[in-house]
Amino acid sequence: MADRLKQVREPFDVPAPAPGGIAARARAGAAAPRYLEGLNPEQREAVETLEGPVLVLAGAGTGKTRVLTTRIAHILSLGKARPGEILAVTFTNKAAREMKARIGVMVGHAVEGMPWLGTFHAIGVKMLRRHAELVGLKTDFTILDVDDQIRLLKQIITAENIDEKRWPARALAGLIDGWKNRGLTPEQVPAGEAATFAAGRGKDLYAAYQQRLKTLNAADFGDLLLESIRLLRENPEVLRDYQRRFRYMLVDEYQDTNVAQYLWLRLLAQRPVRTNLVPGRAEGAGSQSVPLAPRNMQSGPADAASRNGDRPQGESGGQPNLCCVGDDDQSIYGWRGAEVDNILRFEHDFPGAKVIRLERNYRSTGHILAAASHLIAHNEGRLGKTLRTESEWGEKVSVTGAWDSEEEARAIGEEIEQFQRQGHPLNEIAILVRASFQMREFEDRFITLGLPYRVIGGPRFYERAEVRDALAYLRLVAQPADDLAFERIINVPRRGLGDATLNLLHDYARANGVPLMEAARVLATTEDLKPKPRAALRDLVAAFDRWRALRDTIPHTELAEIVLDESGYTEMWQKDRSADAAGRLENLKELVRSMEEFENLQGFLEHIALVMDRDAADDTDAVSVMTLHSAKGLEFDTVFLPGWEEGLFPHQRALDENGRAGLEEERRLAHVGLTRARRRAKIYFATNRRIHGLWSTTVPSRFLDELPAEHVEVKEAAGGFGGYGGYGASRFDEATAFRSGYATPGWQRAQARRRGGFADDEDFSTSAAGRREPRGGASSSAFRAGREGRFGGGRRVPLTIEGELVAKSTGTVSPFSVGDRVFHDKFGNGNVTAVDGNKLTIQFDKAGEKRVVDSFVRKA
Fold it and tell me: Least C-beta-crowded within 10 Å: which of 5, 197, 423, 698?
């Protein structure tokens, strides 16, 4: 019996699955998670290399977002870390939302447990709210925007008897923001830099500003990281807690990090042994000195790790599980503090780091990538990679010269019209300019042509006056010590509380170290104010007390409506008879509607302070016009790149202020512009350009000669300019220029239809000014109207107005009648609703009602 039991207990040999059998095939299919399918070898390596520091050099269009999201999903799927143990940092809230959505598709609801996925500032404010008392704040501190920051600095400058006109608050705000981006507290500002403002008082004003922020229980955007760095440096137990918490750290767009973000990240990526570190010392680097600028750092995380024994993160022998994704060839934000050296020295900061290059582009055609790669190869400060694609070569990059900026805009406008007639969606066309002043030419031209367009980078919803006023009320409900919000609404709507009352409140608040709301509460019970302002102040304080009591008892959306109604703010705009009053009331309604997405008032206000993404564009099919800096991260089928001229691109200011470094950043900007294009990249330059009201003759950009000739096609502008490589005659010298270019497309079509052909040279005469102009009254009127709009000789006029001029100058009878079904090349099919001579009013099926000349249409 015992022998029988022994035999039963002896293990049996388990047979391996037969090669190619059902079990082997099924196990192979289950071995690789579905989210890894479709990754190329380099992407998969970046996803599966989980231990130790990793730098992923991801070129434009190589799928870096997919790599980041798949890497997080892989960590969660393998159980390497819980959602709350992953720190994932992005640069925009839009990118954070997209990343969260993609991860949710891969791993489901686990992504909801990732509280540390967000922007640097969003994560910084989360840390500060948890430990506010350690940096001299309360948990309900207010986050100031730029407008409030400048108003506060104006008060400080005035209190110090400094001439604000000579030393403007906005300039000081820029200095302070730059210091904070470099991790500098007031005590650490170099004396030479402090001397640049108000005869050496910049440092003291910075200190006074910081002290005033603490009194207001407020922080500006720079403080969200600066105070977080101070929190981690001065509280080693807090730092150790976060180091243990974050088993994996991921950073997107690492090439755009500034010094403060770099220092914050390095604190979390290594263990300091000292608790009183300053930006000039390495975290845990003993006696080795570490200057502020990353380019000069002497010690890396390995030094700190070797002095601190085991690491709380991962199993990588003291190295953090840190993955940074970026592209040194797309570092274009140096003007706002970004340090490209952060990514260039990654291997120095993290010895033994693995560098993975993503070079397979999934966006652009071969010619575009070849041109962009050849151009950026002229930069010396880069790690090096070459983009490649497996798609077709496509169209070559085109380079076109124009006589001046107006002809440049005209040529681009007509080319876009050609694309539109061929069925090209306008949403897939973009014009990327180097400077915002270039946009006006295109806006004017598109109005004339009737082309729909949108300008990216205009005023945002939350920056409108009525919205800012409403937000000030809500901020004061949430945080009574918010003096800047109090100042904004104390007399909006008018309550008889003017500057005299506000000055008295300021005097009392400064003397007693209390916020303005508390000063108002006290002075409303004394005889220091006249009866009328005293009563108004008493009512205002009582109203805020009442609203604050309701904050925890009713929904925050209902509270917002009560505040706006009881304060009289809504009534103020209802009584306003101006043209924009109705729009302002709609904006207030939209503001309340936007609050429904948030759990409470504080969450909404924090969102407003942190989120500065543009409002979502409408669904209209329209050309996008924006600066090159605004275009990063976007892509379009067709991209126009105007203004490639010396002094404009590369920009002279960048060359003057930063020399070779500035030139290399401008070249990176050109690289970014080219790689926004999927199918077509079209470069333009003008020989003459009006800048700040003055005409100047320009030289083609040096970047044009850095493009590879075999991937570029040089074209001649329709207006008669000689094109790139030769300065041709002026457009005024050739009649053909007017015949083919300077009459608007609508005028050309009208003349062609009247004759059954194209305009002949005999239709032009020479004017007293020596210019070629069309003969005859009707055509001449239309031509002059277009000419004046283009050359600045008169008011710019839309295309329909040009049609009206033609109609008024003729007495012909139209062959069309009311009710006729007609077709227009631009507006499509429609029905004639009125006839006035040869001028028709047509109700188009899609474009609505338009007034056009009968020669522009034909029977459908």
Answer: 423
Cα first-last separation, the chain? 102
Considering 253, 327, 483, 854, which one is annotated as catalytic?
253
Mean of the per-residue pLDDT values of the chain: 79
pLDDT tens per residue, range 636-694: 999 999 999 999 999 998 999 889 999 999 999 999 999 999 999 999 999 998 765 56
How buried is 530 (Cβ within 10 angstroms: 0-12 exposed, 13-18 middle, 19+ buried)? exposed
CA–CA distance, 163 with 149 (Å, rounded to integer): 18
Respond yes or no: is residue 584 known to be catalytic.
no
Which residue carries 């006589």 as its tokens?
Answer: 403
The span from the CA of 99 to the CA of 801, in Å, is 48
User: Which DSSP helix (H) or strand (E) runs through 836?
Assistant: strand 828-836
Per-residue pLDDT tens for 735-759? 333 333 334 444 454 445 444 443 3
Helix (H) or strand (E) holding 56: strand 54-58
- Per the listing, tokens 């993975």 go with 356
Any catalytic annotation for residue 420? no
Task: Give the SS3 label for residue 20.
Answer: coil
Count of beta carbons in the 10 Å neighbourhood of residue 464: 16
Which one of 203, 676, 678, 689 is the catalytic residue?
A: 676
Write the CA distances from 296 to 87, 280, 289, 553, 664, integer angstroms.
27, 11, 10, 55, 20
Q: Which of 49, 65, 215, 800 is catalytic?
A: 65
The answer to whether 525 is a known catalytic residue is no
Residue 211 tokens read as 């002290």
Assign 426 to helix, strand or coil: helix
Tokens of 183: 């991790």
- Which pTM was predicted? 0.66
Catalytic, 545? Answer no
Determine whether 146 is exposed, middle or buried from the number of CB atoms within 10 Å of its CB (0-12, 13-18, 19+): middle
Task: Please indicate whether residue 330 is annotated as part of the active site.
Answer: yes
SS3 54: strand
Query: Which tokens in the block code for residue 434?
Result: 């180097």
* CB-CB contact of 457 with 436 (8 Å): yes
Most confident of 446-460, 488-502, 670-684: 670-684
271-325 pLDDT, tens digit each: 544 444 334 333 333 333 333 333 333 333 333 333 333 344 444 446 789 999 9
Among 212, 180, 210, which residue's Cα sits nearest to residue 193?
180
Q: Is 253 a catalytic residue?
A: yes
Q: Supply angle C-alpha 764, 767, 773, rounded to 5.
A: 30
Within 10 angstroms of residue 374's Cβ, the number of other Cβ atoms is 17
